[in-house]
């Protein structure tokens, strides 16, 4: 697939489907060309979000513990390929892809098989989703707004068979809060690896915090801004390529890392002339904090420019941050 071969009409149809945020009534992929064009554009942008998630997990010291990796609702398979590619296909026993579209599942299988020679990659066989075979790592990406209650229950059954779960969504308010509700449901058998720095109930879902949602921003590759094809895609799709919001949860039954002393900045810090204001989440709850520029000039610049996940250890004086250092370097 090249930029000249992209079916822009098909991409426009997918864009409208994303914006509609309605449960899917059936397969919507129409051809291999349809999938290849999506994989190269919207799919690659999803890949940047997965890159940010995986960067954070590696910095936190997490890695999958082998077994079978399952890419559920795989679409073109970008999420599964990003995950396996980052940790190495030698760390997995096999890879299984599933999508309600057989066309998409076969596309994802073919792409993964070409990317990871030597790894056993297959489309989920009949009965796999209802079976009891253990799953090492369950990968789910950008599907939450499409799921019916029955489909969500099906995912829950897969979660119950999994040792670890990585789930990434676009970062919208509705999808983020829905993902947070699933975190609440599954914490107990699982330990939270990220984005949280604690295992307490999610404070964003508590009373008085309805206007907030847990989201973060991935940094796109700088080269795309000098690439006329990506600029053209951004304009035609109505997307600001500089902004890649995402939400995610990473759960692991055996995780023993983490520290309750750390804090996570939600969204982006706001820059005002005398100070920076941020929404902070930690084991004590959710709070708006300020960093005075006259006292912490270097920290304020770092908060504005860093590409690292905004996980920090603060020294606080009430709602004012006196000093802080990144916990993920």
3D structure, described in words:
It is a single chain. The protein is α/β, with parallel strands linked by helices. It has two domains: 3-252, Rossmann fold; 263-326, no CATH class. The chain is built from nine helices and 13 strands. It has helices at 8-20, 32-40, 42-59, 78-87, 102-115, 149-161, 173-186, 228-237, 297-305; strands at 68-72, 94-98, 120-123, 135-141, 162-169, 191-194, 216-218, 244-252, 263-271, 275-282, 285-292, 311-317, 320-326. Strands 1, 2, 3, 4, 5, 6, 7 and 8 form an eight-stranded mixed β-sheet that branches. A five-stranded antiparallel β-sheet has the order 11-10-9-12-13, with helices on one face. Helix 5 links the parallel strand 2 and strand 3 (120-123). Helix 2 (32-40) packs across helix 3. It starts with 7 loop residues before the first helix and ends with a strand. The model has no long low-confidence stretch (mean pLDDT 93).
What's the quick description here?
With 329 residues, this protein is α/β, with parallel strands linked by helices. It is built from nine helices and 13 strands.
